Amino acid sequence: MILILGLIILIAAVIIGVVGIFGNMGADHALGTGGDFSIFGYHVMGSTGSVFLAGVVVGGAALLGLALVMLGVRRSARARRGAGMSRREAAAVDRERDDLIKQRDIARAETGGPVADAPGSRRHWFGHRTAPR
């Protein structure tokens, strides 16, 4: 969600900046000689300072959008990396469990005790399960 919001803000700021640059070229739009600066029908009349301030606002919006995009990318990368580590940790735990089961079976075989048929199998009191799980 953060990524999408950041992309929307960034794209809007870029569009406004490009329209402001290419829509106000030529001698008619010179601010010092009574011309005006317009973006999507909004006219900025006055000094170059007011146009500069509008540019700072658009640049700030673009920076905010870029920051949100980077935050969203970082979050999703961290989530993917965390999921990969969880799978690796689960595989390591499974291997350790299988090793312990093998060691237990070897120890029981050496002492003459019963050996499990499969990892995780248990003897049931009545010999079988009544219903599959």
Automatic annotation (TrEMBL):
Stretches for region Disordered: 110-133
UniProt feature, compositional bias: Basic residues: 121-133
Domain of life: Bacteria
Bilayer-crossing regions: 7-27, 47-71
Key words, A-Z: Membrane, Transmembrane, Transmembrane helix
Protein name (database record): LapA family protein
Native source species: Streptomyces sannanensis
